[in-house]
Amino acid sequence: MTSSIAGDTIAPSTESERSESTGRRLGALLWRRLIQIPLVLLGVSILTFWLVQVVPGDPGRNALGQFATLSQVAAWDRDNGLAGPIWLRYLHWLGGFVSGHWGTSFVYETASRPLVISYLLNSVLLGLFAFVLMVPISVVLGSIQAYREGKRSDRAITVALMAVSSVPEFVIGVILLVVFAVWVHVVPVQSGQAATGDFGQRVQVMVLPAIVLAVAYLAVLTRMVRTGTAGAITSQYHRAAVLKGLGPVSVVSRHVVRNALVPTLSLLGLYLGALLGGSAIVETLFNYPGLGALLVVAAERKDVVLLTDGVMVTGAVALVVLLLTDIGLILMDPRIRFERSAD
């Protein structure tokens, strides 16, 4: 799904021709993704279901406890579609998932679909919060570095970002918890119930996890913005805008930002897909009820239904975000093409 810029094609000359060309390419992109996304999800489901089956552990034993007899465990497996050959169990699960009957979680003893969706919404809120923090900061820092290239401020920002990115997420999270939850008492130690409270409580408990998630991606994203901005400000159209007497704000907003963000948008799409799908480490550390933490519990207890459903939803979110990113790339730069060139 890599993009390229067509340099050997003749660009449409009028606005209507450009709009028509963009519409055709968007239609072709959607058509291809409608075929590719189900195939990718099918492959992910097969791989996930097979991996869950080969991992040591007995879901029936985990659900009934250590004092259950073998006959009771076998009966429980039959009732929950876990008996028989693996291909038959996969088809049983796949048929239920496609028809909307996602099964029952063994661990939580409730329907899997509303459980996964509720936790996904929490992860989406947290991911969007982190995204809103990360993008403006990276754009500002990358722009400063590009305009101050080779100077002390450029080097200082580079060193600071390298230092932050070299620290694991859970270490940054623990430091923030100790300072702001234990010493200063401005946020709760555990997100837990507050994460499902009113708007103010939700924002309060999401601040620290969102900061940790944003910091994890900040260094690479800032470097991409720096590279794109440095290329834009040395281009001919930038020099022409300056020579025309446009002010710095107009030059940056009309001629630098858009061209500098085109190569960064692909990376933003990948990061957004990862953020919306949930972060197992951060959500578990802060006891945040997100999809990443839910999948950790499902993996530990070998909750086959919940784990497979959650992975499928995570994959679907990532693919949809990637599709939206490709659409955004085409709209921002009509020269970008995803199909193979004719030569």
Query: If you compute it from the alpha carbons, what radius of gyration comes out, rounded to the nearest whole angstrom?
Result: 24 Å
Distance between the termini: 19 Å
Name the helix and strand elements from N-terminus to C-terminus, one letter apiece.
EHHHHHHHHHHHHHE
Strand order of the largest sheet: 1-2
Which consecutive residue ranges, at least 5 long each, have pLDDT under 50?
Answer: 1-11
Short description:
With 343 residues, the protein is mainly alpha-helical.
Descriptive notes:
The protein is mainly alpha-helical. Helix content is 73%, strand content 1%. The chain contains 13 helices and two strands, in the order E-H-H-H-H-H-H-H-H-H-H-H-H-H-E. It has helices at residues 15-54, 59-64, 70-79, 86-98, 112-147, 152-165, 169-183, 199-233, 236-243, 248-276, 280-285, 291-300, 304-332, and strands spanning 4-5, 336-337. The protein has a two-stranded antiparallel sheet with strand order 1-2. Helix 7 packs across helix 8 and helix 12 (291-300) runs antiparallel to helix 13. The longest helix has 40 residues, at 15-54. The model is unreliable at 1-11 (pLDDT under 50).
